[in-house]
Amino acid sequence: MSDDDDLKWGRSKVDTVCPLDCPDSCSLAVTVEKGKIVAIDGSHLHKVTDGYICGKVRRFAERVYGETRLQHPLVREGRRGEGRFRKASWDEALGTIATRMVEIRDRWGGEAILPFSYGGSNGLLTQDTVDARLFREFGTSRLARTVCAIPTTTAHRALYGRMSGVTYPDYQHARLIVVWGANPSSSGVHLVPHIKAAQKAGAALVVLDPRRTNLARQADIHLALKPGTDVVVALALHRYLFEHDLADEQFLAEHTHGAEQLRERAREWTLDRAAVVAGIDPELLENFAEMYADISPAVLRCGWGLERNRNGGNAALAVLALPAVAGKFGVRGGGFSMSNSAAWNLVPDSWIETPEPDTRIVKMHQLGKALLEHRDPAIQMLFVYNCNPVATMPNQNRVLKGLAREDLFTVVFDQVMTDTAKLADVVLPATTFLESYDVAVSYGLTSLQLARPVIDAVGESRPNVEVFAELAARLGLEAGRDQTTDAEALLHLTNALPKEIRRNLMDTGAVTGPTDAAPIQFSDVFPRTTDRKVQLFPEALERGSPEGLYRYREDLATSDYPLTLISPATEKTINSTLGELRARVASLQMHPDDAADRGLSTGDMVRISNALGEVHAPVRLNADMRRGTVGLPKGLWRMSTFNGSTANALVSDELTDIGGGAVFNDARVEVARVVTASFDKQHLAIWTTEPVEQVH
Q: What is the mean pLDDT of residues 525-534?
């Protein structure tokens, strides 16, 4: 199509960026025709994402224009959970919320209100701007965003401070790549071609994952370790390095503290013992140890999968300490990578400016407990945005019970009618990242990019900044007086950036890094600790950990619940975002031997259960799962199973050893056949342990 034809049909292509919760923050080229999105492709504006995007974002227009898109404010009618809402004006909706907030504060105090948000968008404007000002000024309870990444973040910062990691392109310089607890094919896809390029150049690849992922199939060594045992495998590697005089003693002396304490804690974990506990081949583990000791440059990609269990914080600590003990720093392609968001040293308080009040802190993954048990005061209002807690928080049945309280006033501010929104009193329609301004910070790469609105807001949807500014005004607060639109908030935030970065971001739409070249750890960047040394045995964490640092807590499996249930990320959703687009009921992934023990075949309807709840879904035999481990996808909506429960219904709200994170992969379950029958779209499930014919 020619330029003249483009003008005739009102067709244009706009560069923007995806700010969703993914390490890559892909630059996008969005084609708009007559004011409507007709295609979403990758842009070449960012040299690493370079024109390629995942299938999830490519189909994001289906969310923008989908049947579940919220286009008007809604007010509940009838009983909670019936799904009956009436259309309301913004004036009525915000007036109702403001009135209720004042009533609650006057009667119970501001702490009776709990704002609840997370990474529905990782853009800098969608949370921790005017919203933070409002809730801080009003004196609400504070939310600890602990459902993801807090154990690994705590370990990383204790060891290295906020030191940047190895960037994607530098993986091509490595001769050994270790991918531990990550599956970049599902999250962080732009790392994959750099790994393949390194392999083509002769690099070896080791993958540690309970499943045989696509990347694991291409690895020289795949260690399918039991969930929760990463810490003992890492400690066995430490012992091997120390015991065989392969630790870099010069580096340890010059750049670290605490090596002796780590050496002592690792002493009990031989390779053979660790292999038994982890359920892996001891010979393969020894081969990995030899490779990691001998081959340089070696880069370790530490993911978030290894933190999702009772030992997750210590696992991250032990894994991230390996490059220091083995002396893998100081060379391009050597070291580790995890999150690089700290590369920019962005501090939200610098643009929030309103100080935090000394009010109650609520751990977000204990939402059910908070709604049902917190007193003095009890939570009377829940304000949910950028998040779908019914789909993402542990102990799902407890969360649902809390949200069902008739005395709880719930506001949900979202783009689509989520499982959580169905239980709300007031629902507010939010714009997507294609309808408003934002700034995306990559945490896999080192980039800042500007998100621009490519279409007008659908229906009456509004940006977060605008809504919180108006709500603040109705409450008589100062919070939003200087930032009433997302454009004004954008200018306020970018003014907090260094002048050159701000100018490049606004002029070009993308800044690829705070420095011209990708940093080499311990050459260009050093630990952001008080003395620029690695803290291999951080005493504060030792005091705060239930068993101490570098300790292993035993498997939770019992004879009643012998299987470990994990909920890995998939290519279908970004956490729970886009869960409304799943067309089919999700299947439980199970190893054929585990299925044979229970008389199950692919397609059988099964009951996955433990003391917390049960999930009904079809089973799919998959030899890529390790024996004793079953899997349901992360981020499922309730419609994706036959009984409306997801994997999170089987997950406790207990805490990890370090950081107080969530233990999604500590669910221990049993699986048995069920018979299902469908009556008027309602599913009737009968549990049986005997093979029977399925009734449809």
A: 94
